[in-house]
Amino acid sequence: MDFPSPPPPPPPPPSSPSLPWKTRLLVSLSSVCGDLATRPNGTVNRRLFRLFDFKSPPNPVKPIHGVLSFDVIVDSSRNLSVRVFTPSSDVASLPILIFFHGGGFALLSNSSFSYVAVCRRFARRLPAIVLSVDYRLSPEHRFPSQYDDGFDVLRFLDHESNTIGLLPPNADLSKCFLAGDSAGANLAHHVAVRFCRQRSQFERARVVGLVSIQPFFGGEERTEAEIQLDPGYIVSIARTDWLWRAFLPEGADRDHGAANVSGENAEEISELEEFPATLVFVGGFDPLKDWQRRYYDWLKKNGKIVELIEYPNMIHAFYLFPEISESSVLMNEVREFVSKCMEK
Ligand SMILES: *[C@@H]1O[C@H](CO)[C@@H](O)[C@H](O)[C@H]1NC(C)=O
Ligand SMILES: *[C@@H]1O[C@H](CO)[C@@H](O)[C@H](O)[C@H]1NC(C)=O
Ligand SMILES: *[C@@H]1O[C@H](CO)[C@@H](O)[C@H](O)[C@H]1NC(C)=O
Ligand SMILES: CC(=O)N[C@H]1CO[C@H](CO)[C@@H](O)[C@@H]1O
C-alpha cells in the first residue's frame, strides 16, 4: 500500500537578495568608491570622493516633476545650509519634512544626486516641503556637530522672520516631520529627543512624526545579523567600525549612547511625552537589522507610538534605487504615515 509522502520541507530562505543588475552594479561601485575614499588612518579623501559624488544643482526657476528647489544658508559661520524642495500644491496645510541624508555621518551631501532625487520624490508624493540638511561631516566634525546642525535647522525655522519669503504661505510649521536614512535616521532620532527636551523654547515648530529608514545604530556587541550577513551590500562590519570611529568622540567605544541607542548609555526617553510617532523601515538583507529592531522594541517599551515595516528581500539603502519596486512601496507607506499624523 501507498503511504502518503511527507510534505516537502519549506524552501530555505534565499541567501542573497534578488536585485536588478543595474542596482547590483551601482551598489558595487558606490561601495568601492566609499572604500577608496575612507583612509585607514581615519580621514576621508574628500578630493577623491568628490569625483564619484555626482551632484545635482538646485532648480529654482523651472520645476522638475512639479518641484522647485533652492538653497538657503542657515549659518554661514559653519557653512550650514539646507536645500528646500517645494511642490506645487495648494492644500491649506503643507507638512514640512526635515530630511537627513545617509553616508555614515562622513560621506555624501544635500546635493548628492540620489538624495536630490529622493527628496524631490518625497516633496511630490507626500506632498510636503522637504528641507535637506547639509550637516557637517565626520571626522572633521565629530559627534555632536551633526545633531547640533539638525537641531539648529529646527530653531531657524521657528523664527518667523527667517521663513517669510522662504516657505510658501501654506507651509505648516506645526506639522514638522524628521526623516532620514541610515546615519540620517540616527540623526533624526537624536534631534527628535533634543526637540522634546527643549520644546518650551519653540513658538511655532512642532515635530509630529519621525520617519526612520534603516537607521544606523550599533554597539560593541556583534549581532546575529551582522555576523551572518557580513560583508553585506553597502554595509559591512569593517565599514561601520570605521564610521563609528570617525564619528564618536575620541576614545569612546560603540556602546556610546549615540550608537547603542537602546543600551545602558542611552538617553532616557520614557518621560518625553511628546516624542513623535515613529515609522521604522528594515530590510531583511541589511546587517544592521537587529539594531533597528531593538530600536523599535525600545521605543515601544518606552510607550512611544511606533510602527515597523520590514521588506525581507531588501538591502541597506535600497530605497535610493527607483528601479526597485519596494522603493515606491516605501514612498506610499511614508505618505500614509504622514497623512495619519496630519489628522491628529
Ligand atoms: C592620513 O593619510 C593621508 C594620506 O596618506 C595624509 O595626507 C593625512 O595627513 C593623514 N592624516 C592623519 C591625521 O594621519
Ligand atoms: C565654507 O566653505 C568654503 C568653501 O568650501 C570653505 O572655503 C570654508 O573654509 C568653509 N568655512 C567653514 C567655516 O567651514
Ligand atoms: C548595547 O545594547 C544592547 C541591547 O541593545 C545591550 O544589551 C548592551 O548592554 C548595550 N551596551 C551598553 C554599554 O549600553
Ligand atoms: C557637502 C556639500 O556638497 N554640500 C552642499 C549642499 O548644498 C549647498 C548648496 O548647493 C552647497 O553649497 C554645498 O556645497
UniProtKB/TrEMBL annotation:
SUPFAM superfamilies: alpha/beta-Hydrolases (SSF53474). This is Alpha/beta hydrolase fold-3 domain-containing protein. The keyword RNA-binding does not apply. Keywords: Hydrolase. InterPro entries: AB_hydrolase_3 (IPR013094), AB_hydrolase_fold (IPR029058), Carboxylest/Gibb_receptor (IPR050466), Lipase_GDXG_HIS_AS (IPR002168). GO terms for molecular function: carboxylic ester hydrolase activity. Residues 97-319 form the Alpha/beta hydrolase fold-3 domain. GO terms for biological process: pollen tube growth. Belongs to the 'GDXG' lipolytic enzyme family.
